[in-house]
From TrEMBL:
Keywords: Membrane, Transmembrane, Transmembrane helix
Keyword Ubl conjugation: no
PANTHER family linked: INTEGRAL MEMBRANE TRANSPORT PROTEIN, SLR0610 PROTEIN-RELATED
Record InterPro entries: ABC-2_transporter-like
Lineage start: Bacteria, Bacillati, Actinomycetota, Actinomycetes, Kitasatosporales
Protein name: ABC transporter permease
Superkingdom in the source lineage: Bacteria
Transmembrane stretches, start-end: 32-57, 69-87, 128-146, 152-175, 208-229, 241-261
């Protein structure tokens, strides 16, 4: 089977497994609606903290509330999409410990699709909805000087940002195979990463900004393109075209995550349980 055939098979397996979990979650519709609403409210507490902060200050790192709301909305929405699609990857360590990961290896479906779709949870739509609402308000209130390029940049940021976070989920899962666990390490880069990106780069030291730009390029989720969108200088010198480099960064991150995943599978040793 070629690469395209494997991709089609993986997407088909993912779709079937995810649909099974969706049907399961929709059995009790009232419970599902309450869970989604609760998820929306809980994730919104992060933005409430930002609002409380701005009740005491006018700017943070030189950025106004609508500008930070733009960072927040982009980060949370992009992460929410990746979390909806691959959020179950962080429980891979538990599967390895209890031996159930071996079951996935012998099934006639790509392992990545099985792990990614496992316990697919529509309740995570609450995070996406909340982030999108904040983003919509920020786009209207941030005083952006709109051009066709900037209009196009908004959906490009969201799609590319989700792809970058998805690559981090996959790479983190590969590390869990090697370490036999380390879900906390993965969460530090996924959940920790989205929290970091909710604040402007000007409040962090330049060494951290360089690391998030060049080593683990989460900055291309929102920091770099949002600086262009708002007409702000980025804390470290970058060419203007890098504002549109998010799709390229996402593609490179995806390719590297794929290599890491394959390497993790090759190195896997069953627990024997």
């Amino acid at each position: 089977m070629g690469e395209r055939g494997a991709l089609r098979e993986g997407l088909r397996a993912y779709r079937l497994i995810a649909a099974m979990w969706v049907r399961s979650s929709m059995t009790y519709r009232t419970s599902f609606a309450v869970t989604v609403l609760g998820n929306l409210l809980v994730t919104g507490l992060d933005f409430v903290a930002i609002l409380l902060m701005f009740s005491q200050v006018d700017t943070l790192g030189g950025w106004s509330l609508p500008e930070i709301a733009l960072l927040y909305g982009l980060s949370v929405t992009a992460f929410g999409i990746a979390d909806l699609v691959l959020g179950s990857m962080d429980v891979l360590g538990g599967r390895i410990r209890d031996g159930s990961f071996d079951t996935l290896l012998v099934r006639p479906a790509p392992v990545l699709a099985q792990v990614g779709a496992d316990h697919f949870a529509l309740r995570r739509l609450g995070r996406i909805t909340q982030g999108a609402l904040v983003l919509a308000w920020a786009l209207v209130s941030a005083g952006i000087d709109w051009t066709p390029a900037k209009v196009l940049l908004v959906p490009v940021m969201l799609i590319s940002g989700a792809a970058i976070f998805a690559a981090v989920f996959v790479a983190g899962a590969a590390f869990q195979i090697l370490a036999q666990d380390a879900a906390e390490v993965q969460n530090a880069f996924t959940y920790g990463g989205t929290t970091l990106l909710q604040y402007p780069p000007t409040v962090f030291g330049k060494d951290l900004v360089r690391g998030v730009t060049f080593m683990l390029p989460l900055a291309f989720v929102n920091w770099v393109p949002a600086a262009y969108l708002l007409g702000r200088p980025y804390p470290i010198d970058l060419p203007e075209w890098t504002a549109f480099a998010s799709p390229l960064v996402a593609a490179v991150c995806g390719a590297l995550a794929g290599l890491a995943w394959r390497a993790g599978l090759r190195s896997y040793r069953s627990t024997g349980s």
